[in-house]
Design goal:
By secondary structure, the protein is an alpha+beta fold. The longest helix is centred in the first third of the chain and has 56 residues, at 241-296. The strands form 5 sheets. Strands 19, 20, 21, 22, 23, 24, 25, 26, 27 and 28 form a 10-stranded mixed beta sheet that branches. Strands 1-2-3-6-5-4 form a 6-stranded antiparallel beta sheet. Helix 16 crosses helix 17 (577-596) and helix 19 packs parallel to helix 20. The relative contact order is 0.05. The protein has 4 domains: 44-235, no CATH class; 298-406, 2-Layer Sandwich (Beta-Lactamase), CATH 3.30.450; 416-575, Alpha-Beta Plaits (2-Layer Sandwich), CATH 3.30.70.270; 593-857, TIM Barrel, CATH 3.20.20. It is elongated, with a radius of gyration of 70 Å.
Length: 869
């Protein structure tokens, strides 16, 4: 994969050469500043000289212009000029006023004459106050001197130069300058007329003493005078010490600052180069790590071009896509995606490539060339490029096929039965809800069948759980074979199956499907070398009401199934209005039952278990009754099934246990002689181990003799989990509590099971007693049970004895204990208390015992007066 541009090394010059000269930079800067300072001094000096020269020339030129153009111009003040001229003429003409040239002495005398000087000042004042002077000084001052042996009169005039500086010009009148005839190089002229300009001075020139100046010869009234204008020697300027000091100080300061700045820059650049080197090394290491990570990453990685094509891919992505790395180069990423996922992926990629999004994520499938699929968690993100190059994109793809399969398996397990693979309750309800919606839209009928396999406990307990599982799997297969194509078969648990049939014409079509199911199940099934015949009770309901819901249909089908079971099993019942009334009735009972325990509406009645010889009670069975506020006294058959389906049976059983033990404690305290009597209580809940804990707790709370308590459990209940039942019975026996099997003969157990359970009592079900005395086979079974129980030390109780004929038959068969309406109905505790009080009165006992025994010996067996019917 190409390293992203942001990771690539920039193009730079070799840093070794740069670093070599970097250290010399401060010194080079210092030297440069010093050179610049020296040059500034030279330049400044030259500039001053040039400036001085320019100012000299300007000053002299101005003054020469002054002299030539204005000095002796006959202007407004003609009288002054003429007066001065005449004075000069008279003075120089001597006393006699001749025209001869003055002598040297005369000139010297004139030059030293204060009055003459004052007259000349007036003339020169006129000169310097003309408009030609751009800026003047403070007037004209005169000095007398005798340089070089000559009498001179020097006029010093301040002249403003064009540069703004003030220059001083000396105008020197020398006695020797008074000539009698013109001198070469000088211009002479006649006395000017008023308004006539004098002759201009010659060009300014450098004089022998290095001054600038010029000379003009004028004639005033026929006498030539030489006037010389020159600069003083000091006018040529040189830089002052202060100026030199300032230049040197500024130069030194600039040198220090420049050196410090240069040194700082050098250090900063050196540090920057070091940091760049470190960054380069880190970047190189990062690039190597990135390359290694890219090559050996466990997830798929690739780089895409700006148009979505693969530039490079690692080995993991090649494996995921089923292609070689070379084959992937240049391929559009969309072409690797499964066609069913491609449309959405193309839309997302277009948003990414166009810059609308910076990254996309999705879970999708890659389709390999061999048509196998791989589920991928894909992430594609843009890689920014700072240098303006086209964007590239980084692909990261993680294979989540195993996770998806695990999720599918979990979903399947959550929605399917583990044993049979059929849909479970949750999935069936979901399908039923959707089917109801379709049926409402299309105005069609659907049917729900609730199937309960008859006597499955017999198979499971007699042949074992493994064979029981095989049995259920075969049942599910046969049900699936019998239904129509498109029908849904589900297992709700245990031996309960449910079928959904959509678009049926009516109940008759649903009945036809149920009959096929019955026929399939009735065929022999070989299990463990034996042929087993399965039957089922089936309840059917149809969506004949517009407000039908999935739950209501299941409830109705379940009610119809129970009607089929009550009708003798292996039957099919269709839910009708009467059943709906029954269902509503059950719902009302369930609602009322939830308040019954709290309101004290559940009470215990006690039915006597008698000795057939004495007709005296040897014990009692505690039976629940419900004092319903509107329905009156209800027997367990009216509400125990509802309690069991509502999950309330354990609470009711616990309540019955506590009430029974409290009653035993009360009777034992009042009638110590009756402590040999026992009271049996029923346990219907599934969790027998928890019941053992409750028995232990109640015995501890009531402190009764454990031998006075008998726990009755049904045969079917014991066989549901024989191992757990054996352990629970052993724990109860360890507490001193006796155990009885209730309703023996209604289940599927054989007499051999009696040897496995350490029980104390065996209660023959009323269904056997009802067939006496006419059914000899039943009589033989009862006789066999009694004989075997006697051998095992188990006490037998025949339930449901209602007639004298049944009593006589059981007596002849050797049944040791009897229970039924023939002897006593269940009575409230206070009535039993009254009977016990009467029975265990010693005087009353002696009075009635002898006649009863005598009548029994002559084969008469009236009902005991102590047992009321």
């Amino acid at each position: 994969m190409r390293t992203p541009r942001s990771r690539r090394e920039p193009k730079t010059a070799p840093r070794e050469t740069t670093g070599r000269w970097t250290g010399l930079l401060p010194f080079a800067v210092l030297l440069g500043v010093l050179v610049v300072t020296a040059s500034a001094l030279v330049v400044r000096q030259r500039a001053l000289r040039v400036e001085s020269a320019n100012e000299e020339a300007s000053a002299v030129s101005v003054f020469v212009e002054l002299l030539s153009n204005s000095a002796f111009r006959i202007g407004d003040d003609v009288s002054e000029v003429e007066s001065t001229a005449r004075w000069l003429q008279v003075h120089f003409a001597g006393q006699g006023g001749t025209d001869s040239a003055p002598t040297a002495d005369e000139v010297r005398a004139f030059m030293t004459d204060t009055g003459a000087a004052e007259r000349l000042v007036g003339l020169l004042d006129v000169v310097v106050t003309t408009d030609v002077v751009s800026s003047g000084g403070e007037g004209v001052s005169f000095t007398h001197g005798d340089p070089s042996g000559e009498s001179t009169l020097t006029a010093s005039v301040e002249i403003g130069s064009p540069s703004g500086q003030t220059s001083r010009i000396d105008l020197v009148f020398r006695a020797s300058a008074v000539l009698t005839e013109p001198t070469s190089g000088f211009v002479t002229g006649a006395t000017p007329a008023p308004g006539e300009a004098l002759q201009p001075l010659p060009s300014v020139e450098r004089l022998p003493d290095n001054a600038l100046g010029g000379r003009v010869v004028v004639e005033l009234f026929d006498h030539p005078y030489a006037i010389e204008a020159r600069t003083r020697a000091g006018f040529v300027r040189e830089p002052s010490r202060r100026e030199l000091a300032v230049i040197v100080a500024v130069g030194a300061m600039l040198a220090v600052v420049a050196f410090a700045v240069a040194h700082t820059l050098v250090r900063a650049r050196t540090r920057a180069l070091e940091l760049v080197a470190v960054a380069d090394a880190a970047r190189d290491a990062s690039n190597r790590r990135f390359r290694a990570s890219f090559e050996h990453a466990p997830i798929g990685m690739a780089e895409l071009s700006a148009d979505g094509r693969l530039i490079e891919a690692n080995a993991a992505l090649a494996t995921q896509s089923g292609r070689s790395r070379a084959d992937l180069v240049g391929v559009l990423l969309d072409d690797v995606v499964h066609p069913q996922d491609r449309i959405d992926h193309e839309r997302e990629m277009q948003a990414l490539l166009s810059g609308e999004r910076d990254a996309i994520q999705a879970e999708l499938r890659y389709l390999r060339p061999d048509n196998t699929e791989a589920w991928i968690a894909e992430s594609v993100s843009a890689v920014p490029n700072a240098d303006g190059a086209p964007r590239t994109f980084l692909v990261q793809a993680q294979d989540i096929t195993a996770r998806r399969r695990a999720a599918w398996e979990l979903a399947r397990q959550a929605m399917h039965d583990e044993l049979t693979g059929l849909p479970n309750r949750a999935l069936f309800l979901n399908r039923l809800k959707h089917a109801l919606e379709r049926a409402r839209r299309s105005e069609t009928l659907l049917a729900v069948m609730f199937i309960d396999v008859d006597r499955f406990k017999l198979v499971n307990d007699s042949l074992g759980h493994e064979q029981g599982d095989r049995f259920l799997m075969e049942v599910s297969r046969r049900i699936g074979t019998a239904v129509r194509g498109g029908d849904t078969v589900a297992r709700f648990g245990g031996d309960e199956f449910v079928v959904l049939c959509e678009e049926v014409t009516g109940a008759s079509e649903a009945m036809a499907v149920a009959q096929r199911i019955q026929s399939e199940l009735n065929r022999p099934l070989e299990l463990a070398g034996s042929n087993v015949h399965a039957t089922a009770s089936i309840g059917i309901t149809l969506n004949q009401h517009g407000d039908d819901s999935a739950d209501s249909l299941l409830r109705d089908a379940d009610a119809a199934m129970y009607r089929a079971k009550d009708g003798g099993r292996n039957r099919t019942e269709v839910f009708d209005a009467a059943m709906r009334t029954s269902v509503v009735e059950r719902m009302v009972i369930e609602s009322d039952l939830r308040h019954a325990l709290a309101n004290g509406e559940i009470v215990m009645h006690y039915q006597a278990i008698v000795d057939p010889l004495t007709h005296l009670p040897v014990g009692y069975e505690a039976l629940m009754r419900w004092h319903h506020p509107t329905r009156g006294l209800l027997t367990p058959g009216a509400f125990l099934d509802v309690a069991s389906n509502a999950g309330m049976i354990e609470r009711i059983d616990s309540y019955a246990l506590q009430q029974t033990c409290r009653q035993i404690a009360e009777w034992s305290q009042r009638f110590p002689a009756a402590r040999h009597l026992y009271v049996a209580t029923n346990w219907s809940a599934r969790d027998l181990s928890r019941f053992v804990q409750q028995v232990d707790q109640v015995l501890s709370d009531t402190r009764i003799d454990p031998e006075q308590l008998v726990v009755e459990v049904t045969e079917t209940f014991l066989l549901a989990d024989s191992d757990a039942s054996i352990e629970a019975i052993a724990q109860l026996k360890a507490l001193g509590v006796s155990v009885a099997i209730d309703d023996f003969g209604t289940g599927y157990s054989s007499l051999s099971y009696l040897t496995q359970f350490d029980i104390d009592h065996l209660k023959i079900d009323k269904s056997f007693v009802d067939r006496l005395p006419d059914d000899h086979a039943t009589a033989a079974v009862i006789s066999a049970i009694s004989d075997m129980a006697h051998v095992l030390g188990i006490k037998v109780v025949a339930e449901g004895v209602e007639t004298d004929e049944q009593f006589d038959a059981l007596l002849a068969l050797g049944a040791p204990r009897l229970q039924g309406y023939r002897f006593a109905k269940p009575r409230p505790a206070d009535e039993i208390t009254a009977q016990l009080a009467e029975r265990f009165d010693p005087i009353r006992l002696r009075q009635v015992a002898a006649p009863i025994l005598k009548r029994h010996q002559i084969d008469e067996a009236p009902v005991s007066p102590f047992v009321t019917s």
